[in-house]
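Lab notebook, design round three. We kept the backbone fixed and only want residue identities now. Task for the bench partner: fill in a sequence for the structure below.
Input structure tokens:
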């Protein structure tokens, strides 16, 4: 059964996706930074699943449940009731106290699971839906503990996975008295230093890169490395991972920095950038340094004359080689230089690549009314 995972964008969210990928073939992982964005992303998934023939599993981990998300659960159940044949499955693994409050307010009072201290389950009225909340466990640990709900195999390197779970659990639940807390803090620092600025979300290598880095760090913790030793080893670990990813890259230059080497591969990506109607290439949520390097490569190769990067918070960065970056920025209440300028989305934020595309396309390339190109079109609206 095809498996899609929606998870948080912090260490625990990536820990959960690392565990899931070790236990099953995850076809797609979507990292969500803001709980307020979970509802719209889930709604898109429910619409997609409503049109899907074969049954799939949707796994949600470490995402605080807000009112709009719980409304999405109701739509999921309604979609499943209309479905003939095998039903889609929804597995929700969360550990936020606020989620319990929201579920209760929406009429889904979570109840204790027999024999599992601290674990609560909300009955959603659909046997294909499992919603579990455990305030005493991080999502990474929950994903491993409840892997039978989605797993197709037992994980390799179980000792390293166990070391990762202990480190993330101590850090995410702020258990300062735990001997695993210092290691968890070191892993968290490595994660934030490398998670999005080398291989960004949206690229096929992103989760492979981050999970490999987390597992490499966990292996060093298992071997007894101190936080200082782990910090010193981090650069070598990410270099080894990049070497493996770039083994068959036709234009790799090992003498360059890891970031510069990866930028060459990112510039060839057909999934990281979306072509707008006027030929502008749009990316979503790229680190500013990565965007600068990759956009330069793209324009040097002749793939586009203008590139724009949209951040979740609604800021836009335009780059061009024909002086049109400023033209684009002006349409979004912005300014800057002719080939490097910025602006803001009209709505103030974007929750996904599709949302960013829709907002930018509407302003950058508005639809012309039928017949507006006709030389007689102006006469139709002429008033004497």
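Proposed sequence:
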């Amino acid at each position: 059964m095809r498996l899609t995972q929606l998870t948080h964008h912090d260490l625990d969210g990536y820990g959960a996706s690392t565990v899931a990928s070790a236990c099953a073939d995850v076809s797609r992982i979507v990292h969500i930074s803001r709980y307020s964005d979970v509802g719209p992303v889930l709604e898109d998934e429910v619409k997609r699943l409503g049109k899907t023939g074969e049954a799939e599993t949707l796994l949600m981990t470490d995402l605080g449940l807000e009112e709009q998300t719980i409304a999405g659960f109701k739509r999921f159940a309604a979609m499943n009731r209309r479905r003939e044949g095998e039903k889609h499955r929804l597995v929700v693994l969360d550990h936020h106290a606020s989620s319990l409050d929201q579920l209760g307010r929406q009429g889904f009072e979570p109840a204790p699971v027999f024999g599992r201290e601290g674990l609560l389950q909300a009955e959603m009225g659909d046997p294909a839906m499992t919603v579990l909340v455990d305030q005493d466990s991080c999502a990474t640990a929950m994903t491993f503990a409840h892997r039978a709900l989605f797993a197709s195999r037992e994980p390799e390197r179980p000792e390293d996975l166990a070391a990762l779970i202990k480190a993330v659990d101590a850090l995410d639940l702020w258990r300062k008295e735990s001997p695993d807390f210092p290691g968890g803090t070191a892993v968290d620092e490595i994660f934030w230093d490398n998670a999005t600025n080398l291989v960004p979300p949206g690229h096929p290598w992103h989760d492979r890169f981050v999970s490999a880095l987390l597992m490499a760090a966990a292996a060093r913790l298992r071997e007894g490395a101190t936080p200082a030793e782990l910090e010193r080893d981090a650069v070598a670990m990410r270099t080894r991972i990049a070497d493996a990813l770039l083994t068959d890259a036709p234009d790799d230059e090992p003498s360059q920095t890891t970031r510069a080497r990866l930028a060459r591969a990112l510039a060839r990506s057909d999934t990281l950038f979306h072509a707008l109607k006027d030929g502008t290439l749009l990316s979503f949520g790229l680190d500013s340094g990565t965007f600068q390097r990759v956009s330069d490569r793209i324009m040097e190769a002749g793939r586009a004359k203008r590139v724009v990067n949209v951040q979740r918070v609604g800021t836009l960065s335009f780059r061009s080689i024909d002086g049109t970056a400023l033209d684009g920025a002006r349409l979004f209440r912005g300014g800057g230089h002719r080939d490097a300028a910025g602006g803001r989305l009209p709505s103030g934020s974007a929750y996904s690549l599709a949302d960013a595309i829709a907002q930018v396309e509407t302003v950058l390339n508005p639809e012309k009314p039928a017949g507006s190109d006709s030389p007689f079109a102006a006469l139709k609206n002429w008033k004497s």
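Keep this in mind before ordering anything: The longest helix spans residues 227-245.
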